Amino acid sequence: MAVLTGKIALITGASRGIGRATARALSEAGAAVYLAADGTREELSAVATECRTQNAFARAEFGLFDLSDAADVGRMVDAALASFGRIDILINNAGIRIRHPFGEFSAADFDRLVAVNVRAAFLASQAVVPSMRASGGGRIITVASQLGMVAAQNNALYGLAKAALIYLTKAMAFELAPDHIMVNAVSPGPIETEYNLAQMQRQPGYRELRQSQVPLGRWGKPQEVAQAILFLASTEATYIHGSNLVIDGGYIVQ
Fold it and tell me: Is 158 marked active-site?
């Protein structure tokens, strides 16, 4: 089992879904976690309580931030540093999805989605580098998507942003290797997050359609993505750098 005792992790989009599962997994492994999201204080407080339950010795703090605001990204990193003194692990998980047929996206849609999904990860990663350098290294793990590699109806903007994150992972890995900052991405496929469960309610047949596209024949669980992130954050992943781990039940092999 991966051990993160004594490590400090900042997790964005931590109030639900993959972020919530990741917070629980890292806490169980011994990390102290700073949870950031634009949800509600009640949601984040509940996740922090879950993290403390996972490991009685692990600390969990949280804050509300609007990651579409560049200044708030900086405030988030400053708050995590104020709480724990350093950041060893950054999980860039926060993201939004805006779905339209191509030709119907607005400039405001573009600006908001890119700000949250790409700019926030870029700025947060830059902001944690000084702390990681001072500590002799660190881990940056970004949650991209299979849709950064394959096309899907109504997802041109979301896929564009996730493709940018996959490239950003490679660029950071190349430049930050001398600082012993290891950088990787994970690309989930169909995962039973709150967003996708709500989509299933709105669109009859959506679950079955997506499930039929997966060779393993089922949707993934947030915990399955979280375990991959935990591995990449741990000292067990000592020679994985600049990679994009696809977690999609085999969807993109077709």
Answer: yes
